[in-house]
Specification:
Layout (H helix, E strand, L loop, with lengths): L4 H15 L5 E7 L3 H6 L11 H9 L3 H25 L12 E4 L5 E4 L3 H4 L2 E7 L2 E7 L3 E7 L3 H4 L7 H10 L5 H19 L10 E7 L5 E8 L9 E9 L2 E7 L8
Antiparallel strand pairs: 1-5, 2-3, 4-5, 6-10, 7-8, 8-9, 9-10
Bound molecules: coenzyme A (COA).
Length: about 260
């Protein structure tokens, strides 16, 4: 599995196009930015900037960890959106990053708020853990989850990992230690919940690991089956899962229609 965040990002960008050839998607993965350093910097060309309502939201957070993770999630979301437009809608002039506003629905789900029609139809997912944040933007419903390894995972594993799922992971990922292995499944399920949970998020045990293919030593492809079967397809969700340092990172793109249509 790749070691640096930059290598991880490159690997995911390359692999997404192979695993999900029909989807357009763009990713960002960044070390957490200090809000104080961010707010006192002199903006230069290419600096990601927040719109006034976003600055007000940042000011409303008092916990240092939440402030930093929230800010970095926004920076990642704007970076991923700009990159998506640059790659897939090159005929449009790139908007200012402050014109790509990120807001949360009452459920907490993030969405892109912009007067630009090209941006309005895109789905967005954000995640943060430890010293990193990540975002994924796609033309169809998507989810991303990053999670630092934690001693808590084995203790709560019965809440998200059934015995036969643990067996599948052990059989296909024998070189991983138990915590990283559990963490891959945790992030896979969190990413899937974000992708399909627009109306109602499925529980962890309603997403059942069906297959695990360690496609290379760099990443694994996990197939989660929704059980019970959802009213609308897809039933099976393909997850691209990888590791860097002591983090697991999972990404899912669904065949579900445009999440904001
Ligand atoms: C949402 C949830 C999956 C977040 O996972 P987490 O591992 O704790 O934290 P992460 O850092 O990975 O993700 C946080 C991000 O998830 C996104 N998020 C929050 N709620 C979401 C939702 N309902 N759907 C999709 N994404 C959501 C947000 O962008 C949030 O970051 P932000 O607040 O800085 O914008 C988890 O907290 C959860 O299960 N909450 C319950 C939400 C729920 O059931 N709501 C009712 C649905 S209608």
């Amino acid at each position: 599995m790749p070691k640096s965040p930059a290598a991880t990002l490159l690997l995911l960008e390359k692999t997404l196009a192979v695993v999900f050839p029909e989807h357009l998607a763009s990713l960002s993965l960044t070390a957490v930015v200090s809000p104080e350093a961010y707010l006192t910097q002199t903006p230069a060309a290419g600096t990601i900037t927040l719109a006034d309502p976003e600055l007000a939201t940042l000011a409303s957070y008092t916990l240092p960890k939440r402030r930093a993770q929230w800010l970095t999630g926004r920076i990642c979301a704007k970076q991923a959106t700009s990159e998506y437009l640059r790659r897939f809608v090159p005929q449009l002039p790139l908007p200012e990053s402050r014109d790509i506003m990120i807001r949360n629905l009452p459920s907490g789900r993030p969405e892109i708020d912009s007067p630009l029609a090209a941006v309005r139809g895109l789905d967005l997912s954000i995640s943060h853990s430890g010293g990193y944040a990540a975002a994924l933007v796609s033309s169809s419903a998507c989810g991303i989850d990053i999670q630092e390894d934690s001693e808590t995972l084995p203790r709560i594993s019965n809440r998200f990992c059934q015995a036969h799922e643990a067996e599948i992971l052990q059989r296909h990922l024998p070189d991983h230690h138990p915590i990283p292995r559990l963490n891959l499944l945790w992030t896979a399920k969190e990413a899937a919940r974000k992708a399909v949970g627009r109306e109602k998020m499925p529980g962890f045990l309603e997403l059942v690991l069906h297959r695990c293919e360690p496609t290379s030593d760099q990443y694994a492809m996990l197939v989660l089956r929704q059980d019970p079967c959802p009213p609308q397809p897809p039933r099976d969700l393909i997850i691209l899962a990888t590791r860097f340092a002591h983090f697991s990172l999972s990404v899912v793109l669904t065949n579900g229609g445009n999440a904001h249509a």
